[in-house]
């Protein structure tokens, strides 16, 4: 049963809209797989009924601490941003299937591509890949210079490129422009971000070793409500499906319809 | 004596709590969180004759104190439910309420004929909120004589008692309730979701790709209580009450309104342990209210000779 | 140019915001909190031919994200409204929407005939959720031909445009909307409250002494949005939208659904300054959404040739 | 416009169910009339939509502080009890018509009778009467010894009798039993408490100088919604009314139907 309370130990703003929250609690012991998410009950009032899915960004197993980065988007994340140190959050998780580490061997190169709030789960992934002896390269895509976060943190782990839509920082354009520009190659590509980005990567590398993390509105988060399903590529019956919450959020390229 | 036990046609329940159809899948996921044998019964996801994928996503949206869903009755189809889902549930000694949906009367009949033969299916729950293809998509549950016809046909083939799950989106819930009772329903389930919509301000389009969806959660509880209070006074068949239940207090409120058992839907998403938690809290609440057996609560808000006053 | 202005039959409004009938009395109390001239219009409390005391208390109960009321149309009666309330409101340059209620068609006709002659009454709003005494207490608003007949008779005598306020407690809101449009309604108001109930666990009786009451507040917003979205696409008359509005975002959501103006009810109790606050916040929200004139939002969630996409 | 924020400076439990909350803010300046109430928006979440009416129990004009005593009854008061020092509460008030001081002359005797959470508003009243030279006598009615609060505070102002239903403290029975028992007399009687208590006092003293504070479920609290009306005694038309929120909560005996 992956359910428990986490206690907030720190909360700080990374940009005008993105917050970093650090929590501790026994549940962190189970948070070993990068790309998994936590399903947060922001508070106990009845006007926010659904939990919010947020990716695990980093775990410090020694301290028993987990970090999440989130964008203040609507009612739930706005209320989360008001929480103070010492307050508890009711959490389900870790949930879902994360990024597979075993497919990438020591000495191989992994390219990690994140867009916006798709960036956070790649951090824990990168740390684990690096620890294993994999060469990590990062491309982080943002709207604009003021939206950039965690560039230094990623740079400490490996070469890190940034693209911004308006060109105010790094390469102007999209993450795919960086790949071409810099002539980057990889053995495995791991990515998380907006659907158009994932679609572009699928088109570029339909037959390579590519893993994509999807986003979908969720109900239960544990596979019971069928809120988060997607179609399977090549399914003739039309009734095959995958659940983002339990089969994903990470899928190999070409498995599900984006 | 088990003071929480309730007795309804086909359903001998150790307590009045069951998860609501569509909010608990076929039980497997929640079995990771608690022992399903604690439940009074389990209402499984709507089953249709053929497998269905359902609607495009987004399929859920949050509303104030509620949520909208337009899952579109995704399910693996009758065959798979019979061969995979129901046998898996047999490991638990808990009666199953099999929710049945369709687009024509024949669908319901075919599905019920088979599902009602399953060993652990103790009752059928007819989801009559589905659009009726032959009537241009108007829900079966909004026209009394059609709801009655559906009930009658299904009763003809069912091996177990049939509960008709009423849609609240009607002018006169009593009229529908009476019609299905007369047509032979053994019980009622109420209420299904209210039809609602939310619009995304930035996309300038409904959030759900289906446009509208079903509103559930605490927001609709007062509507459910009102309808159960109205209907329970005029029918002689028991009611499984639902709509926004989250706490033991809510369960008592539904039973005082006239429900004989209850189902918990949306609250499972907020808290996967809500069903066992509510069950655990009931005895202390009964003590506080001076109630010996929970069945004594049924209809307590209107029953003249009620032994709970 | 006033980018917030909206234009409806009889109502030239400086902004789309009016307090909803029954939630603002006749304006006096809120005049202590802000200048009423900031409002787009004011819908005053339902007026009946004779003074009414209304229901016994308790008349209100809270629900999750909503409230129930069973005020019972307490009001000082037509004479007093004509001689006391309306003249007092003349000090403000703001159009009044006079809400009219009754128990027989003749009541509505008599009240409208007189109220619609008042200098500052620019529109009549027919509250058709009232029980129809001649039909055994069934609400006028649930039977299309009766709603139509009432509309027709009232239109015959009204000196100002008539808005019919629809009850959401119906199987088919489109059918009712079409019936009253055909009968000559100049506009629609939607939605009135949903019927609901809460039961006191300790007293084992409904909290409201009337038993059931009308559910309002954010809980019902998705139902209102859905109905306005449905109806606005099939009628040619404008809609005043209401049901749970609290913020500028809510106003935009209602207008995108198809409302041409909105009314704010329950939220006045939570915050007596809600109307001026929402009005103040609208321009910044329009900027953020890239909307020049607020009227461009109307029906934006479904209008094909909508200039806001 | 009686609307503003009060900041909580202290909160403490008086009994297992009754809390004392102290707040400060500029609004307190207007709180001069005992018997008036504040309409509290417990918090800004949408699941508690209605404000809660709570009587003013005491005001310290020098410190700019107001005290309220409340019983943890349901959802709203339970949530109020969780609020911490430093938090703000959105308040309408002071609202309503309080107890008339001017009717009682210097040297006269005032009998103040409170039942349960009807006790609090009598404290501010008693202080003001005493300051004016009125002799004050108090009768406080509770269920049981464990429910008794503010006995010392009242005793400092004048003779104070307690009744409990179960007889565990003071006189066994009701406040009216104390009147008879002790043979108490008065020039003015002021009372606040449950309706049966107010009815008993009305029956005892239909023609005396008696003022009763009523309770009713409220919507707006300012006279606009007609949630809180009561009938007028002797009204033949049946349509006359008084609003508890604005005409009351204090009425002279015999004015409204209890
Ligand atoms: C597996 C997964 C991992 C995620 N990880 C992160 C992360 O690490 N950092 C981060 O900032 N965001 C992440 N998101 C997106 C995040 O869940 C939403 O931004 C958040 O739920 C918005 O909630 P809100 O109350 O602020 O917005 P509201 O719009 O008020 O939310 C209303 C409802 O819509 C849902 N919703 C709204 N936007 C989204 C969305 N983009 N995806 C899914 N549900 C949504 C909410 O969960 C809620 O149920 C993730 C989403 C998924 C599915
Ligand atoms: C003028 C006035 C002054 C009051 N002063 C005090 C006081 O000083 N101390 C104190 O402890 N209590 C006082 N009360 C009663 C207090 O308002 C209620 O106990 C409180 O509103 C209960 O809220 P809740 O959320 O805890 O209960 P819930 O039952 O959850 O409340 C639900 C709804 O019912 C209303 N409600 C419930 N009980 C009452 C009641 N007895 N009276 C009025 N409305 C009620 C609530 O305001 C709310 O709208 C006063 C009431 C009035 C009318
Ligand atoms: C995601 C979801 C799926 C549902 N699926 C079904 C279904 O398949 N069949 C059915 O009869 N009701 C279905 N319902 C309705 C619930 O069983 C229940 O009647 C309703 O949600 C009210 O209860 P609640 O407020 O506790 O959720 C569904 C509800 C939700 C939220
Ligand atoms: C206390 C109260 C009294 C009301 N009285 C009337 C009325 O007299 N006439 C009417 O047409 N609607 C009346 N309504 C309904 C409102 O005008 C409005 O349609 C409904 O409350 C939904 O809006 P809201 O959610 O913003 O309150 C009343 C609502 C409330 C809460
Ligand atoms: S969120 Fe419920 S199945 Fe995925
Ligand atoms: S509470 Fe609204 S009139 Fe008194």
UniProtKB/TrEMBL annotation, chains A, D:
<keyword id="KW-0285">Flavoprotein</keyword>
<dbReference type="InterPro" id="IPR012165">
    <property type="entry name" value="Cyt_c3_hydrogenase_gsu"/>
</dbReference>
<feature type="binding site">
    <location>
        <position position="245"/>
    </location>
    <ligand>
        <name>[2Fe-2S] cluster</name>
    </ligand>
</feature>
<dbReference type="InterPro" id="IPR050353">
    <property type="entry name" value="PyrK_electron_transfer"/>
</dbReference>
<dbReference type="InterPro" id="IPR001433">
    <property type="entry name" value="OxRdtase_FAD/NAD-bd"/>
</dbReference>
<dbReference type="GO" id="GO:0046872">
    <property type="term" value="F:metal ion binding"/>
</dbReference>
<feature type="binding site">
    <location>
        <begin position="76"/>
        <end position="77"/>
    </location>
    <ligand>
        <name>FAD</name>
    </ligand>
</feature>
<dbReference type="InterPro" id="IPR017927">
    <property type="entry name" value="FAD-bd_FR_type"/>
</dbReference>
<keyword id="KW-0411">Iron-sulfur</keyword>
<dbReference type="GO" id="GO:0009055">
    <property type="term" value="F:electron transfer activity"/>
</dbReference>
<dbReference type="InterPro" id="IPR019480">
    <property type="entry name" value="Dihydroorotate_DH_Fe-S-bd"/>
</dbReference>
<dbReference type="InterPro" id="IPR037117">
    <property type="entry name" value="Dihydroorotate_DH_ele_sf"/>
</dbReference>
<dbReference type="GO" id="GO:0050660">
    <property type="term" value="F:flavin adenine dinucleotide binding"/>
</dbReference>
<dbReference type="GO" id="GO:0044205">
    <property type="term" value="P:'de novo' UMP biosynthetic process"/>
</dbReference>
<protein>
    <recommendedName>
        <fullName>Dihydroorotate dehydrogenase B (NAD(+)), electron transfer subunit</fullName>
    </recommendedName>
</protein>
<dbReference type="InterPro" id="IPR017938">
    <property type="entry name" value="Riboflavin_synthase-like_b-brl"/>
</dbReference>
<dbReference type="InterPro" id="IPR023455">
    <property type="entry name" value="Dihydroorotate_DHASE_ETsu"/>
</dbReference>
<feature type="binding site">
    <location>
        <begin position="69"/>
        <end position="71"/>
    </location>
    <ligand>
        <name>FAD</name>
    </ligand>
</feature>
<dbReference type="Pfam" id="PF10418">
    <property type="entry name" value="DHODB_Fe-S_bind"/>
</dbReference>
<keyword id="KW-0408">Iron</keyword>
<keyword id="KW-0001">2Fe-2S</keyword>
<comment type="function">
    <text>Responsible for channeling the electrons from the oxidation of dihydroorotate from the FMN redox center in the PyrD type B subunit to the ultimate electron acceptor NAD(+).</text>
</comment>
TrEMBL record, chains B, C:
<feature type="binding site">
    <location>
        <position position="127"/>
    </location>
    <ligand>
        <name>substrate</name>
    </ligand>
</feature>
<keyword id="KW-0963">Cytoplasm</keyword>
<keyword id="KW-0285">Flavoprotein</keyword>
<dbReference type="InterPro" id="IPR033888">
    <property type="entry name" value="DHOD_1B"/>
</dbReference>
<feature type="binding site">
    <location>
        <position position="165"/>
    </location>
    <ligand>
        <name>FMN</name>
    </ligand>
</feature>
<feature type="binding site">
    <location>
        <position position="127"/>
    </location>
    <ligand>
        <name>FMN</name>
    </ligand>
</feature>
<dbReference type="GO" id="GO:0044205">
    <property type="term" value="P:'de novo' UMP biosynthetic process"/>
</dbReference>
<feature type="binding site">
    <location>
        <begin position="192"/>
        <end position="193"/>
    </location>
    <ligand>
        <name>substrate</name>
    </ligand>
</feature>
<comment type="similarity">
    <text>Belongs to the dihydroorotate dehydrogenase family. Type 1 subfamily.</text>
</comment>
<keyword id="KW-0288">FMN</keyword>
<dbReference type="InterPro" id="IPR012135">
    <property type="entry name" value="Dihydroorotate_DH_1_2"/>
</dbReference>
<feature type="binding site">
    <location>
        <position position="21"/>
    </location>
    <ligand>
        <name>FMN</name>
    </ligand>
</feature>
<feature type="binding site">
    <location>
        <begin position="69"/>
        <end position="73"/>
    </location>
    <ligand>
        <name>substrate</name>
    </ligand>
</feature>
<dbReference type="InterPro" id="IPR024920">
    <property type="entry name" value="Dihydroorotate_DH_1"/>
</dbReference>
<feature type="active site" description="Nucleophile">
    <location>
        <position position="130"/>
    </location>
</feature>
<feature type="binding site">
    <location>
        <position position="45"/>
    </location>
    <ligand>
        <name>substrate</name>
    </ligand>
</feature>
<dbReference type="GO" id="GO:0006207">
    <property type="term" value="P:'de novo' pyrimidine nucleobase biosynthetic process"/>
</dbReference>
<keyword id="KW-0560">Oxidoreductase</keyword>
<dbReference type="InterPro" id="IPR050074">
    <property type="entry name" value="DHO_dehydrogenase"/>
</dbReference>
<keyword id="KW-0520">NAD</keyword>
<feature type="binding site">
    <location>
        <begin position="265"/>
        <end position="266"/>
    </location>
    <ligand>
        <name>FMN</name>
    </ligand>
</feature>
<feature type="binding site">
    <location>
        <position position="191"/>
    </location>
    <ligand>
        <name>FMN</name>
    </ligand>
</feature>
């Amino acid at each position: 049963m992956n359910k428990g309370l986490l206690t907030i130990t720190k909360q700080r703003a990374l940009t005008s809209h993105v917050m970093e929250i650090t929590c501790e609690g026994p549940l962190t012991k189970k948070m070993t797989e990068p790309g998994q998410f936590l399903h947060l009950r922001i508070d106990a009032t009845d006007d926010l009924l659904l939990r919010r899915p947020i990716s695990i960004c980093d775990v410090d197993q020694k301290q028993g601490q987990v970090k999440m980065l989130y964008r203040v988007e609507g009612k739930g994340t706005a209320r989360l941003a008001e929480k103070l140190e010492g307050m508890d959050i009711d959490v389900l998780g870790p949930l879902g299937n994360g990024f597979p580490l075993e497919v990438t061997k020591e000495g191989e190169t992994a390219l990690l591509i994140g867009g916006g709030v798709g960036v956070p789960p790649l951090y824990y992934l990168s740390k684990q890949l690096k620890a294993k002896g994999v060469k990590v390269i990062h491309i982080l895509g943002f709207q604009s210079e003021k939206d950039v976060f965690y560039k230094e943190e990623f740079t400490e782990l490996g070469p890190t490129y940034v693209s911004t839509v308006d060109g105010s920082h790094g390469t102007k354009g999209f993450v795919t422009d960086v790949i071409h520009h810099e002539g980057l190659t990889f053995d495995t590509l791991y990515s998380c971000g907006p659907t158009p980005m994932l679609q572009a990567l699928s088109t570029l590398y339909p037959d390579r070793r590519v893993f994509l993390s999807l986003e979908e509105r969720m109900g239960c988060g544990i596979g019971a409500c069928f809120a988060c399903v997607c179609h399977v590529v090549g399914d003739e019956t039309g009734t095959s499906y995958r659940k983002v919450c339990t089969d994903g959020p990470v899928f190999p390229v070409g498995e599900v319809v984006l | 004596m088990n003071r929480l036990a309730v007795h309804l046609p086909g359903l001998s329940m150790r307590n009045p709590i069951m998860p609501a159809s569509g909010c608990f899948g076929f039980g497997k996921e929640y079995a990771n969180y608690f022992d399903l044998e604690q439940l009074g019964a389990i209402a499984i996801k709507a089953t249709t004759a053929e497998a269905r994928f359902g609607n495009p996503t987004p399929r859920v949206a949050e509303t104030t104190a509620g949520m909208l869903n337009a899952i579109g009755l995704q399910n693996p189809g009758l065959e798979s439910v019979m061969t995979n889902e129901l046998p898996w549930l047999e490991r638990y000694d808990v009666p199953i309420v099999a929710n049945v949906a369709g687009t024509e009367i024949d669908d319901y009949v075919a599905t019920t004929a088979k599902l009602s033969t399953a060993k652990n299916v103790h009752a059928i729950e007819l989801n009559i909120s589905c659009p009726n293809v032959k009537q241009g998509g108007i829900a079966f549950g909004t026209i009394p004589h059609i709801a009655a016809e559906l009930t009658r046909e299904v009763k003809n083939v069912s091996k177990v008692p049939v509960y008709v799950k009423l849609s609240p989106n009607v002018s006169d819930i009593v009229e529908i309730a009476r019609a299905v009772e007369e047509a032979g329903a053994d019980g009622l389930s109420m209420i299904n979701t209210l039809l609602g919509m939310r619009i995304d301000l930035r996309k300038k389009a409904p959030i759900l790709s289906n446009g509208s969806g079903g509103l559930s959660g605490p927001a609709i509880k007062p509507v459910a209580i009102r309808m159960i209070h109205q209907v329970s006074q005029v029918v002689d068949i028991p009611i499984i009450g639902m709509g926004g239940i989250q706490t033991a207090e809510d369960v008592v409120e539904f039973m005082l309104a006239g429900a004989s058992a209850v189902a918990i839907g949306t609250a499972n998403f907020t808290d996967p342990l809500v069903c066992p938690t509510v069950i655990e809290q009931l005895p202390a609440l009964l003590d506080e209210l001076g109630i010996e057996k929970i069945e004594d609560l049924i209809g307590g808000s209107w029953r003249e000779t009620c032994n709970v006053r």
